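Journal club prep — side note

Before the paper discussion, L.F. wants everyone to see what a predicted structure for a comparable chain looks like in token form. Sequence:
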Amino acid sequence: MVSPDYGWLHSPDGMDSACVLFKAGKACEGYFTSEDILKQASNAMDIFKKHYSNEDHVMVFDNATTHLKHADGALSARHMPKFSPRYGHQWDGTDWGESCKPNHWGVEVNMVDESGKPVHGPNGTLLKKKVSMGNGKFMDGSPQSLYYLQGHQLAGVFKGMAVIPEEPGYEGAAKIRAEWPKFQCRKEAIHCCCR
């Protein structure tokens, strides 16, 4: 991290530094991930606070992949099924929708190793895995699980877009479209689709 006033950002005594050195490439130390950028920014803020607290600081980042990053398991209507998987009652915790008879649904995230670095396959592509989405929230702020809870016959299985809005009281979600083509809802519609 470079400061226009101080050059490479470090403490006055040089003991604390925001500089990160690594060998880029999938055959070396990988690439600078969003998590790495967060760690570096946090370290830089600690240096600013401890050694340069009498000044205002603005950090500017130029890394396109950070613009797309969201938390693993973040809520996303993209590709979300309208109903629970037909074979959800057979879910054993392994099939996340890859088979022709999916038992479950989750969001795709990058696989990482124990140090938090992305894992690549033999052909160089990033390996992916599926995880459950995090909870939503009801209007009162209490959590709403998007997956059936323990004790239900479909425990752990995704509820589907038709069930989720009906839990807080919206009726008829099963009767409306999952989405309009190209996400172009009618302008006059209030509840035109589940997304």
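L.F.'s comment for the group: The mean pLDDT is 79. Keep this in mind when we get to the figures.
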